[in-house]
Amino acid sequence: MRSPADLVPHEPDEGLRESVDSARLVVVKVGSSSLTTASGGIDDERIGELARVLAERRARGVRVVLVSSGAIAAGLAPLGLVHRPRDLATQQAAASVGQGLLVHRYTAAMAELGITVGQVLLTADDVIRRTHYRNAARTLFRLLDLGVLPVVNENDTVATQEIRFGDNDRLAALVAQVLRADLLVLLSDVDGLYDGPPARPGSRLIREVRGPADLEKVVLGRVGAGGVGTGGIVTKIDAARLATQVGIPVVLAAAAQAASALSGGRVGTLFRSTGTRKATRLLWLAHATVPVGRLRLDPGAVAAVVTRRLSLLPAGVTGVEGRFAAGDPVDLVDESGVVVGRGLVSYDSSELPGLLGRSTRALAEELGAAYAREVVHRDDLVVLRRAAPASR
Q: pTM for this one?
């Protein structure tokens, strides 16, 4: 295992940096602290500079989607709040006030450059549920086809866990996956990933991350001292991991370096793609959802789900834990409690107890055709690990 002192930052491959400049569809995420003052006011100069950078890329034929934090931060000053509130209700109130202000500033700045802005508010739920996922993708692509710059933000006024965990970094990775983007650029108030806290003497910038081994022993801290954002370097690493796993390279750089970062300049940290294109919704289901319940499976159902990759039927479920609604993510566990998969359940938790152990044919005959459906459809299910061997 390497220590930070032994970690030699890689010099980025020139070909990879050239591929950044040649990207035709780019998702750019900018954090709250890069758009606002510490007191919560929107910095028009920063908004204007970012608008000019994005306009320049568009003029070169690049399709750009902007994922922007800042709604809660922008709402602080109008509400007379000095610091980011801790309680969820006040955070949501600030987001409600700030989102309109934020989009208005983007609209005005882009309009000066002849660009139309379209607001898209999403939650993780919108890109996990099958029908919502398709709708989100269709809307974003249509906006791009119409020459509009989509400005995406977390729907903070209704989000819960997403607000607390700085989800816009992960949301940006998801949007990049939905659009099968060529590049994801994360703009922050630090100029890349360091092998230790950036302010610590001796910490060095890591120019390139080729894979998980390059992150061994790296000491991760939080980004930003202004107190207006929720993200940190950890959420950016998670976002980079999600994107690179599906073949999308990631650049992490300071907002002030946006022009260079987008044009392949030797700034920030470049995360190489480590995987190939795959079913992005299932990747998100596996790595970015929080299960709200558990379904216990008998051995036959475990084999069907894990080995044969079939849907989960009521006959194979032996127990239900937690309270959830149809469409929520739940973990699938074997008889020993080992998590073997995760899926989007088709029934409310209150409906399932009366269905367990029964065939879909019998349920349809007794309760109607609506009850012939799977508990978890195979298209909404991802295998996480093999079941534990049976004891002898």
A: 0.74
